[in-house]
Amino acid sequence: MADSLAHAGPGADESIEPGRRDFLFLATGAVGVAGVAAVAWPLIDQLNPAADTLALASIEYDLSKVALGSEVTIAWRKQPVFIRHRTPDEIARARADDHAPMKDPATDASRVKAGHEEWLIVLASCTHLGCVPTFKGGEYGGWACPCHGSVYDTSARIRKGPAPKNLYLFPYTFLDNTKVKLG
Questions:
Q1: DSSP string over 132-144
Q2: Segment 85-117, tens digit of pLDDT
Q3: pLDDT exceeds 70 at position 70
């Protein structure tokens, strides 16, 4: 029998009796799978949204805190948002300019909610390079970007300067006359 094994060549005894080599292949495979899982799990888990971001997906704000003719800047997902309580004069001025030449034409009515025209809620980021504009900084009675000179009117529409678009409207819903849900 020893003679027949000698002629069978290398590895012939492995087909007869499973041994250490099979165990090593299985053990190496199991360790490899565990290693891939250990590396992949944190990478996949990081794709989940952060808990603090989910908490700020929408917020409620009490509008009674904003006096007529003033504005507040609040943070939503680390971005500034303007909530402007416009005066009747600011609304009239914005409506009078509805058909003026603009880079990004829009009517005042399209930028506010019907029945709540005195409230303008926009993302407080200049559409040129993302600076935060200041109110009463330009000849149109609205906002002006101190960095590059973009000028917005009382409806946050771009009137002159390098900004290509109006200040972006922010998604919101009125819960009642004094409360708004942002986001």
A1: --EET-STTEEEE
A2: 999 998 998 899 888 888 889 898 999 988 889
A3: yes
Using DSSP, state whether 28 is helix, strand or coil. helix
Give the integer Cα–Cα distance in Å for 143 and 131: 12
Residues in the chain: 183
Which candidate in 7, 85, 116, 148 is catalytic? 148
- Report the CATH number of the 53-182 domain: 2.102.10.10
- pTM of the predicted structure, to 2 decimals: 0.65
> What are the structural domain ranges in the chain?
2-45, 53-182
Instruction: Assess whether 148 carries a catalytic annotation.
Output: yes
Q: 117: closest CA among 130, 103, 98?
A: 98
CA dist 158 and 156 (Å) reads 7
